[in-house]
Amino acid sequence: MDMTVLTYAIYLVISIALTVWVARTLSRNGQIFLQDVLRGREELAAAVNHLLVVGFYLVNLGFVALYLKVGDTVDDARGSVEALSVKLGTVSLVLGGLHLLNVYVLSRIRQRGLDEATDAPQRARKLSGRAYGPPIAPQGTTHPAPGV
C-alpha cells in the first residue's frame, strides 16, 4: 500500500473517531445546559441539541473531507507522521473553535433569558400602573355594575 494512501486512511479514521467522540460528549453534556437555557422545556432542548449535533457533524466531516489531500507525496513513516500531525492538529483546532462558538452563542441566549426574567417583575409593575391600567372614571361618576 502506498504511504500517501495509508496516511489518508489513518487521517480519516482518527478524524472521524475524534469528531464522533466530541459530538457525543457535547450532546450529552449540552443537553443539561440547553434545558437551563430553554427554561426546562425538555422536548425543545432535545430538538435543539439534535439540530446542533447534526450541524456539528456536517461542518466537521465536511472540513475533514476537504482537508484530506496531502500537498506532497508521503514517502516514509516520518512524512506520514508529519502530515498527520498537521492535519489532525488543524481538525482539533477547528473542533475546538466550533465548540467555543456554540458555547458563546448559547451563553448569550441564556444571559438574555436571565435578563428577561429579571426585568419581568419590573415590566409587570409598569403595566399595572395608572398609565397602562384600566380606564379610571372621573371623580363623581360611577359605572353601572356589570350585567345591569
Automatic annotation (TrEMBL):
The organism's superkingdom is given as: Bacteria
**Keywords, ordered alphabetically:** Membrane, Transmembrane, Transmembrane helix
Q: What is this protein called?
A: Uncharacterized protein
- Disordered: annotated segments: 120-148
Spans traversing the lipid bilayer: 6-23, 44-68, 88-106
